[in-house]
């Protein structure tokens, strides 16, 4: 298994050509697609130790790329507070307006969500198809929600203690739903009917109360939907939610994968069809929640002209030290590479290359 310090897990189609199939109208198809980032709980858009570092790293790795790290509020402190206390639906509406007004995004963009930012950006993809989101990368996102909030790191721990008590007391109380972000993706498997009827955010974007065909159509328009799970996650409960799995209904001990959920078998959101078409990508890293390091390597969907795929693989192997089980459910190989070439790649190489 790859080391947690090997941040190949963010490898995604960020360089020229990544959106060719989705956005043929682009004026400059050779330019890198912009990247939109949404931070997680207790974080901010521009923290130099988190999202600020990610933004800087991407800009250094991909010259000329436009990176928008979303700030929800007028100040960094307000941004942090809103990650706890601003209605998620209001946040999504605000982000949709920000994206629609940004001329640099009109031809399409890639999106990368960290923790709860993963499901929030999925809501953007489902509700706001313009400008078009090309690829969505969810890093530790909780797409089936959470049923537990074990702890928060650092200075936010006292806030999480309060949130935990509030959620245990009445997560589906209308006032709590309207004012507490984490309540809006609280999913009680023992009280499914209550969750379905009173969750104002997650139950809606997961089509729990009926099928909104535009949600399904818009999500299926993604080129790739990448989900990264942290195998030693001590914050997300259950961790399978990071791959769209959850507890089997009626109890809170046994979890089932996405493919066994009603959401998948009934295909209310198009995930089954996307899975069959190779649009869903499941990656895993042996680390705690968002355990990322400075050694992260961004891999491109289209390597520079002077580099062959073999060179690209060698670079990946040298940088990432990936192992044969770095990817638990498949790799994404470049379409330009022939099937025979793909078959000849070693499992070590396949685990290092994600498109």
From TrEMBL:
InterPro entries referenced in this protein's UniProt entry, alphabetically = AB_hydrolase_fold (IPR029058), Palm_thioest (IPR002472)
Alphabetized UniProt keyword annotations = Disulfide bond, Endoplasmic reticulum, Glycoprotein, Golgi apparatus, Hydrolase, Lysosome, Secreted, Signal
Species of origin: Canis lupus familiaris
Q: What class of enzyme is it?
A: hydrolase
SUPFAM superfamilies listed in its UniProt record: alpha/beta-Hydrolases
Protein encoded by which gene: PPT1
Q: Which family does it belong to?
A: Belongs to the palmitoyl-protein thioesterase family.
Name this protein carries in UniProt: Palmitoyl-protein thioesterase 1
The residues the entry assigns to the signal sequence are 1-21
Record-level GO cellular component terms: endoplasmic reticulum; extracellular region; Golgi apparatus; lysosome
Tell whether Disulfide bond is among the UniProt keywords: yes
Catalyses which reaction(s): hexadecanoyl-CoA + H2O = hexadecanoate + CoA + H(+); S-hexadecanoyl-N-acetylcysteine methyl ester + H2O = N-acetylcysteine methyl ester + hexadecanoate + H(+); S-hexadecanoyl-N-acetylcysteamine + H2O = N-acetylcysteamine + hexadecanoate + H(+); S-hexadecanoyl-L-cysteinyl-[protein] + H2O = L-cysteinyl-[protein] + hexadecanoate + H(+)
Specify the superkingdom. Eukaryota
Q: Could you cite one Gene Ontology molecular function of this protein?
A: palmitoyl-(protein) hydrolase activity
Where does it live in the cell? Endoplasmic reticulum; Golgi apparatus; Lysosome; Secreted
Q: What is its main location?
A: endoplasmic reticulum
Q: Name one Pfam family in it.
A: Palm_thioest
Q: What is its EC number?
A: 3.1.2.2, 3.1.2.22
